[in-house]
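HOLO CASE FILE
Compound: guanosine-5'-monophosphate
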Amino acid sequence: MTSTAATSDCLFCRIVAGEVPADKVAENDDALGFRDLNPQAPTHVLVIPKVHSPTLPELASEQPSAALAVLVMAREVAEAEGIVDGYRLAFNNGAGAQQTVFHAHVHVLGGREFTWPPG
Ligand code: 5GP
Ligand code: ZN
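Model generated. Tokens follow.
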């Protein structure tokens, strides 16, 4: 379920609310981009919606414009980081896919070679 109220038990809602510091690289009314604390590539930015939803596919069902804003910002971050010729967007959905923060986010990864399939 989407929600605009910052919930103290959601880390990314707390980052949106400014209660937890983050190295922000992009922000608008709908989305926020900040560097991952534990980067897996030279560029590793997380782009999140400002509203709370557990995963981006769920947000897309409930509030399509907010989900679209995340994707648009992901592309803008890739351009700003100079990785647009080869970058990876990763969505981990559910604990079985190694999702650890249950506020929708896309990983924007670039600046190195990638392999396929992912692990
Ligand atoms: P997930 O595994 O849920 O797809 O990704 C969550 C990401 O959030 C991980 O890559 C992790 O390193 C990152 N992360 C966890 N806590 C923090 C934090 O407090 N600040 C930032 N910037 N990233 C965090
Ligand atoms: Zn949240």
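CASE NOTES: The longest strand covers residues 43-49. The mean pLDDT is 95.
CLOSED: yes
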